[in-house]
Design goal:
Layout (H helix, E strand, L loop, with lengths): L1 H15 L6 H23 L10 H24 L2 H8 L2 H12 L6 H21 L3 H24 L5 H22 L7 H26 L3 H6 L3 H14 L5 H28 L1
Helix pairs in contact: 1-9, 1-11, 2-8, 2-9, 3-4, 3-7, 3-8, 4-7, 4-11, 4-12, 5-7, 6-12
Length: 277
């Protein structure tokens, strides 16, 4: 998980290094690389790429929501400094919990609503004191919502499918969307841009492999997931070192409120999980 968090942080740096390349084009090349590697890995594991028929609708919806989260996430990274852009992505579990009321039949307790409010209040603080554009914040919230829904459909699929099958469906949805997007907005990459684009695809696939392995081999899912919050530390440090992104001190307080609300919700959910199931 430590390796995965670092790899995803490096992916964000690569995206920032491609200001002239449209987001759709980055997604297209990333998805093409990931699809090729996923097919090769599926062939090696001899897993059926199409999965089981009863799961296919949820697999498609997982791909749709994942694609929406990817598109809006890339646009957010292009519009906002790294630290707040990554912070907004951590709101995904809130939308997962809310959507789970209807799609998974899992209730949300009173304390959890308080934790959700704490996180959303942190977004308001960070936006207000740092003057983040509402367009970028809106995209970040949309990415978190789509990401949260993708987690719900991932839960509906459960462990009945190989993790690579879920990744395969994700790329099947993403590629046509990216192809249509780039048909209207294409910038021919030059020089080092090709290297940054290739790095996005390779680093993403490596990060996905690492995070899958961490959950399959680990025995404490909550402890493993907590390591993901190191991504914010990486984002703040890399944004300062590589892009000279300076953020108001109070904005860090707002980001801390976001993470506190998400962390409290994760802790509370873990303690009350048996009662919910």
């Amino acid at each position: 998980m430590l390796a995965s968090t670092l790899l995803f942080a490096l992916v964000n740096i690569c995206i920032k290094k491609l200001p002239a390349i449209p987001a759709g084009e980055i997604i297209l090349i990333r998805s093409a690389i990931s699809l090729g590697l996923t097919l090769a890995m599926l062939r090696r594991t001899r897993a059926a790429p199409w999965g089981h028929r009863p799961q296919r609708a949820d697999l498609v919806w997982r791909g749709i929501m994942g694609t929406a989260a990817l598109v809006m996430g890339f646009l957010t990274i292009k519009q906002l400094p790294l630290a707040p852009a990554v912070t907004l992505q951590y709101l995904g579990p809130i939308f997962t919990a809310v959507a789970g009321i209807w799609l998974l039949g899992q209730p949300v307790r009173g304390w959890q609503w308080l934790f959700f409010g704490l996180s959303l209040g942190g977004v308001a603080v960070a936006q207000g004191v740092s003057g983040l554009g509402w367009a970028g914040v809106g995209l970040g919230l949309g990415a978190a919502a789509a990401s949260g829904l993708s987690y719900v459909f991932n839960s509906r699929v459960g462990q009945q499918e190989h993790p690579l099958v879920i990744v395969f469906y994700f790329q099947l949805v993403t590629l046509p969307v990216a192809l249509l997007w780039t048909a209207f907005d294409w910038h021919a990459p030059r020089g080092l841009e090709w290297a940054w684009l290739a790095a996005v695809g390779l680093l993403t696939q490596a990060a996905l492999w690492c995070v899958t392995q961490s959950y399959q081999r680990g025995h404490q899912a909550a402890g493993i997931a907590a390591l993901d919050y190191l991504g914010l530390v990486y984002a703040a440090a890399f944004g300062y070192w590589f892009f000279d992104e300076k953020i108001e001190p109070l904005a860090y307080g707002g980001m801390a409120l976001v993470l506190l609300g998400v962390a409290l919700n994760a802790w509370y959910s873990a303690r009350h999980k048996p009662a919910d199931l």
